[in-house]
């Protein structure tokens, strides 16, 4: 079976190396693949946690867009392989116009959220690591919930209210070592003990890598 998961354009990384700079490119086919597999009922990797994203996309395709970056970047001395941002141009005038033009030239619209993925990582990563990275970024688009866990809908649009979500768990190993696991770390440990929900079969079905039996 051929690889059917989206791969970055082959010239992106070469061109970036030539220019000794990071190059970016729209990843329209990646968005289509994510919608089909993660955000559609019955999709191989469908996760109801993201149904609110699907609902927003169903109403307005400009809600989300994807881009490839030719290589990882460094932030807080860590390698960043993916990034989810709420698209905001703070400056006005020509700076804002130029940034908005870039989005329109790439996608035909200005997205509400933009997920950027390291192309060089994706070129070499296995299917599970690739899917894990994509889903990590999707989880950064959070939905507002009330005390009972029900989704809060906007009075204005009638759609789920969303925000850029922080990680569920952020802790230093040294702190856990010295002081023990807090509630969130304990939850993570419990979940990590279970076998992963997504099977190799699911991954093979939408990424196209042969299963080794
Ligand atoms: Zn993250």
From TrEMBL:
Pfam families, per the entry: PhageMetallopep
Entry protein name: Putative phage metallopeptidase domain-containing protein
Domain Putative phage metallopeptidase as annotated: residue spans: 32-192
Lineage: superkingdom: Bacteria
Source organism: Acinetobacter tandoii DSM 14970 = CIP 107469
InterPro entries: Put_Metallopep
């Amino acid at each position: 079976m051929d690889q059917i998961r989206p791969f970055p354009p082959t010239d992106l990384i070469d061109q970036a190396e030539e220019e000794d700079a990071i190059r970016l490119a729209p990843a329209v086919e990646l968005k289509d693949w994510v919608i089909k597999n993660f955000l559609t009922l019955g999709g191989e990797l469908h996760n109801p946690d993201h149904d609110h994203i699907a609902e927003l996309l169903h109403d307005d395709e400009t809600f989300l867009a994807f881009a490839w970056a030719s290589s990882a970047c460094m932030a807080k001395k860590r390698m960043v392989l993916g990034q989810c941002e709420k698209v905001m141009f703070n400056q006005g005038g020509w700076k804002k116009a130029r940034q908005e033009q870039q989005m329109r030239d790439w996608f035909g619209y200005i997205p509400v959220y933009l997920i950027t993925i390291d192309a060089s990582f994706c070129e070499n990563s296995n299917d599970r690591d690739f899917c894990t990275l994509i889903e990590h970024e999707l989880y950064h688009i959070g939905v507002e919930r009330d005390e009972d866990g029900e989704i809060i809908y906007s009075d204005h649009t009638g759609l789920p209210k969303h925000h850029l979500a922080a990680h569920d768990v952020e802790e230093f190993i040294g702190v856990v070592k010295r002081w023990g696991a807090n509630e969130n770390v304990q939850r993570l440990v419990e979940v990590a003990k279970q076998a992963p929900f997504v099977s190799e079969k699911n991954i093979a079905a939408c990424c196209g890598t042969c299963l080794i039996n």
